[in-house]
Specification:
Elements lengths: L28 E6 L16 E2 L2 E2 H13 L4 E4 L2 H9 L8 E4 L6 H10 L6 E6 L7 H18 L3 E2 L2 E2 L5 E6 L2 E2 L3 E5 H7 L9 H7 L4 E4 L7 H4 L6 H8 L7
Parallel strand pairs: 1-4, 1-6, 4-5, 9-12
Antiparallel strand pairs: 2-3, 6-11, 7-8, 9-10, 9-11
Helix pairs in contact: 1-4
Length: 248
């Protein structure tokens, strides 16, 4: 979902860590790429392996998040076959870790839950494998929100004690919120997931969390409008490749 894209650079390589924007400071976060879907709307083959500018979508997404977060992302998959096929599209020296979706759950929540049970970082940045226009500065701006919030927690005290850091930080525009371009506190996921139904999504998780920080697009880099773009069909991918507007 984005406004018209202009001057999209050709990419044959994922961004390097040296090209990543500076964070002040970076939060303790791991990026999680959700790739366990069946891609039924996309047609034959896993859409994460479809290409844009000659590069598989999974490589574009993982490469961007690896550069911004400064550590290997986690890729969440549903099956062993997905893991094998996606691993072949990623450089081995990226040290990407894979997790299997939580079998009790479905959709994005299954991957987020599996990641929360695997990592040790305080935060998870969650994105889909079908978001080929992820923008480093848009992601880094959310990381900075988390770092600021964690710092503020040490300086502000209420009648109930220390003001807690938000359990999630989610971009929001007039079109709605973006739970697949957002930060989740790992402890908040682990503490609340047992109360959710098997077919619940990230929206149900956010509804359970008190104090979610919703950040307006106007407070983020302009590139966030491109960054949240996802592609569900081959037609949408072709429109992205042509520089056209894509909306969900």
């Amino acid at each position: 979902m984005t406004r018209e894209r202009q001057n999209r650079p050709s990419r044959t390589d994922a961004p390097t860590a040296a090209a990543a924007p500076s964070l002040r400071p970076a939060p303790d976060a791991t990026a999680v790429v959700l790739a366990g879907g069946e891609s039924t709307r996309f047609g034959p083959g896993h859409k994460a392996l479809a290409t844009l500018d000659g590069e598989p979508l999974i490589r574009r997404v993982v490469g961007t998040l690896r550069a911004v977060a400064g550590r290997p992302p986690i890729v969440a998959v549903r099956t062993a076959d997905q893991r094998e096929r996606l691993a072949q599209a990623l450089p081995r020296d990226w040290d990407v870790r894979f997790v299997r979706d939580e079998p009790r759950l479905a959709g994005p929540l299954a991957g987020v839950t599996a990641a929360a049970d695997t990592v040790t970082t305080s935060w998870l940045f969650v994105a889909g494998c079908d978001m080929p226009l992820l923008e480093p500065h848009a992601v880094a701006a959310l990381f900075e929100c988390a770092a600021r919030s964690d710092g503020d927690r040490d300086r502000h005290v209420s009648a109930d004690g220390d003001r807690p850091s938000p359990p999630a930080i989610v971009p929001v525009s007039e079109r709605g919120h973006e739970p697949l371009h957002a930060l989740y506190r790992r402890a908040a996921v682990r503490d609340n997931v047992s109360e959710l139904a098997p077919d619940d999504g990230l929206g149900a998780l956010l509804n359970r969390l008190d104090g979610v920080e919703y950040v307006g697009f106007d407070a983020l880099p302009e590139s966030v409008d491109r960054s949240v773009t996802n592609v569900n069909t081959r037609t949408e991918l072709a429109r992205v490749a042509a520089g056209d507007e894509v909306r969900r």
